[in-house]
């Protein structure tokens, strides 16, 4: 497999996908066209406008982008695709859309065959075992929380450290993930913005500019440096 | 109906339920014993310890507390109960637990008969139409997102305003609720900490120390003052 699962598409103060440009040139080496999956985005931007945004970026790399929503037969479009990119938004909506159109399995199979895959945020969540560690609001009810299992763990994109100044009683991200571990025997990678998971064949590492916080059942959370193998 | 759905159990720097004491004395007037529903709490505190915490507080009001987990026949315990309190934690876990034990409907019926009900955070979410506006992480998969509909809208407990200083690309609470509205024709009450919803027979108001942010399909979000009728 040849995949990147990124915490975020955009760094604070940066442009869309800018910080990943060098990595994406490697991920999509030899590719003419990427099939973009826009289904995570519930409002504010149409599937067309979202696809245009991706297209604008990939123009720089001389790669064309087509939105999966443009194809009548979406399964065939996935089978015919050279490479994929799933944009961020709401993971519940993304998973429900893929399930209803019966696209999750065919997408997984095509990525496992070696077609390059980029996920950002919600698009990264679906690369994990399941979506039970998303930060998103459950605005729609999916048929199940199972995802593509492109990596043998779960992700928490946009991982955020507790803010000691916040006079608020909501749970911290760490508390939420610890609660997940009481109910699930699954490792969780807390992926801070600026970081991504890179899978190349069987080698899975975490990359980027920040430390990454790992949560495993039965042990205290710990930090790993960029370049660390994750399995 | 005679209910309080509170944003949080505890204000920053305060003690458990302290800020609600006067209201709770009115809610539970004439009640000897409250049946406490501890199922939202996934870790860190057992059902017993969680019930003890509620018991400690209600001692001050000379009201006994028994945990629903203590009863073998929980349906009968709900039917026999004088009043209820559902504590906070994870809404997915709470809803799944109530569904698996087939307790949601019997609880709803008993509250609709006029038995006092207090919910905090997750315990408030289940008073809404559905749990699709919870902030919680989907650590388990419930049979559905439907809740008790004790009020004709949804709640967002611990409602939090955007932090302009945060250099982070995750969605704000407002963005999340707007996304919900693209998929659901349901009003959402953004309940800041310090506020609660009070239902007394057919009168539903929002009370507390803060403004409350209301989200409705098709119009811009707006703020209402304490004492405002919500339907």
Automatic annotation (TrEMBL), chains A, B:
GO terms for biological process: proteolysis. GO terms for molecular function: serine-type peptidase activity. InterPro entries: Class_I_gatase-like, Peptidase_S51. Keywords: Hydrolase, Protease, Serine protease. It holds the Pfam family Peptidase_S51. Belongs to the peptidase S51 family. This is Dipeptidase E. It comes from Pedobacter rhizosphaerae.
């Amino acid at each position: 497999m040849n995949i990147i699962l990124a915490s975020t598409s955009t760094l604070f103060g940066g442009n869309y996908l800018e910080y990943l440009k060098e990595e994406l040139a490697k991920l999509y080496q030899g590719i003419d066209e990427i099939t973009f999956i826009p289904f995570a985005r519930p409002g504010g931007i149409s599937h067309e406008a979202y696809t245009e945004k991706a297209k604008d970026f990939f123009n720089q790399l001389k790669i064309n982008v087509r939105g999966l929503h443009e194809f009548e037969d979406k399964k065939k479009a996935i089978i015919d695709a050279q490479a994929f990119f799933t944009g961020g938004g709401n993971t519940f909506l993304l998973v429900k859309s893929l399930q209803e159109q019966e696209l999750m399995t065919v997408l997984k199979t095509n990525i496992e065959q070696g077609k390059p895959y980029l996920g950002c945020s919600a698009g990264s969540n679906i690369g994990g075992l399941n979506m039970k560690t998303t930060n998103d609001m459950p605005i729609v009810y999916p048929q199940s929380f199972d995802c593509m299992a492109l990596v043998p763990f779960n992700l928490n994109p946009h991982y955020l450290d507790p803010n000691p100044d916040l006079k608020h009683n909501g749970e911290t991200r760490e508390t939420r993930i610890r609660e997940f571990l009481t109910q699930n025997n699954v490792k969780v990678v807390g992926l801070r913005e600026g970081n991504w998971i890179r899978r190349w064949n069987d080698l899975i590492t975490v990359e980027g500019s920040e430390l990454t916080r790992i949560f495993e059942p039965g042990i205290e959370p710990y930090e790993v440096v960029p370049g660390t193998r994750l399995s």
